[in-house]
Design goal:
Blueprint (H helix, E strand, L loop, with lengths): L7 H18 L3 H7 L4 H10 L17 H11 L5 H14 L1 H6 L2 H12 L5 E4 L15 E5 L7 E12 L6 E7 L15 E7 L5 E5 L10 E12 L3 E2 L5 H37 L1 E2 L2 E2 L4 H29 L5 H24 L11 H9 L9 H12 L3 E4 L2 E7 L1
Helix pairs in contact: 1-4, 4-8, 5-8, 8-9, 8-10, 9-10, 10-11, 10-12
């Protein structure tokens, strides 16, 4: 397919990723879904192939590839048929270690980023809490600074995080914590007092509980408790008190990643359905010949094509370092809702077989439901968009907290 965004090199890369997915991921679907765990060996294999280092410089073991290689990788990842696997890998690469790369110290990068890119360590991102999700300012997990001439200065972390992808079997977590309260005099602290800490999940005081999810079975999702967990001051990512702004800065990439995978996931469901419709007979002819089905899927294919072009346009603006707060919110909203509608529509045409676990469309149906919740709910996306187009608020690039009225 000729495209203004992708080159022949991107097309060749797509072929290699698809071959990898087909040969080394898809055959393990039933095992990983049943065991509800992805082996570290597949992360190591992706690290060996350079897939986990696409956005990162060669100095840390990455490939330093342009963003369109990441787009290709995410699209092919979403076609594996396992929402859990897709999520685990994308969270690790594009969310959990993104902050570490952007504002972490060189020592932290060498110790944690390098093995993460190599697939030798799996990362998680800890934001959501039992009583706080989208409202980042309401987070309650705390980190109290304790000074010691003997053991060294450290933060003492207390609290809980939930719905954490890679949280059960991951090696470390980028953790959002309250290091000071509003009005505190801690040097460098923002009014919100949020900071980011890198915490090893094997540390004393860390307790992990695996959550039993409706979908995304192949990935591990956990609730994690921190009881007096000692974290060296050197493990702080960036400046103390600046965590809120770091999180806001990365939300656009997270939503863009979600939109890319949602469009590809919708196309995957449509492709499954088209193959089935040509094979399945009813009343003496293939289901693909029934006008009601044909016209419905024509609409679905059109919506997917429109969504894809909008997402690609937003990706291009992202590569040009433009302010894409509104576009990323729109893309995440539209693409995730579209994928949910698409899978629901497609499953209908499988009839009773669509309700059977032996059919990939069944897994797609239970996996897709969380798409309009994870990474920012559709309601939050609508509110951001509404504030921009109705209230005349312009969010500065990367920092949704700093709104300027036009």
């Amino acid at each position: 397919m000729i495209s203004q965004y992708f080159t022949d090199d991107h097309a060749l890369f797509r072929q290699t990723v698809r071959q990898f997915i087909d040969a080394e991921v898809v055959p393990h679907t039933e095992t990983w879904e049943t065991e509800r765990r992805i082996p570290i060996t597949i992360f190591e294999r992706m690290g060996e192939l350079g897939y986990l280092g696409l956005p990162f410089p060669e100095a840390y073991g990455g490939t330093g590839a342009d963003f369109w290689y990441s787009v290709v990788f995410l699209e092919e990842l979403a076609r594996c048929g396992m929402g859990g696997f897709t999520t685990a890998v994308s969270v690790h690469t594009f969310m959990a270690i993104n902050h570490l790369f952007r504002v972490g110290s060189e020592a932290l990068k060498q110790k944690y980023l390098v093995p993460a890119i190599a697939g030798q360590a799996v990362a998680a991102l800890g934001i959501s809490e039992p009583d706080a999700g989208s409202d980042v300012a309401a987070l309650r997990c705390t980190a109290r600074l304790e000074r010691s001439d003997v053991s060294g200065d450290a933060y003492i972390v207390d609290g809980a995080k939930t719905f954490i992808s890679n949280g059960m079997y991951g090696d470390f977590i980028t953790l959002a914590v309250k290091t000071s309260m509003p009005g505190a005099t801690t040097p460098g602290a923002s009014t919100l007092g949020l900071s980011l800490l890198l915490v090893e999940l094997s540390s004393p005081g860390v307790t992990r509980t695996k959550l039993n999810k409706m979908g995304w079975h192949s990935s591990d999702t956990a609730e994690i408790r921190f009881d007096g967990v000692r974290v060296p001051v050197e493990n702080r990512i960036g400046a103390e008190g600046a965590g809120f702004y770091y999180l806001m800065e990365s939300l656009q990439l997270e939503r863009l990643v979600a939109a890319i995978m949602a469009v590809s996931g919708a196309q995957y469901a449509l492709d499954l359905t088209l193959r089935y419709l040509h094979e399945r007979q009813a009343f003496g002819k293939p289901l693909a010949k029934f006008q009601a089905i044909r016209h419905t899927l024509a609409d679905v294919a059109t919506e997917i094509a429109v969504a894809r072009e909008f997402v690609y346009s937003t990706c291009w603006k992202h590569t040009q370092d433009q302010n894409v707060v509104q576009e990323c919110s729109m893309a995440k909203l539209f693409a995730s809702e579209l994928q949910k509608r698409t899978v629901d529509t497609c499953l209908q045409y499988f009839g009773g077989y669509g309700y059977m676990e032996d059919y990939p469309i069944c897994r797609a149906y239970r996996d897709v439901r969380v798409g309009t919740i994870a990474g920012g709910t559709s309601e939050i996306m609508r509110e951001i968009i509404a504030k921009m187009i109705i209230d005349g608020i312009a969010f500065q690039k990367g920092y949704e907290s700093k709104a300027i009225r036009n």
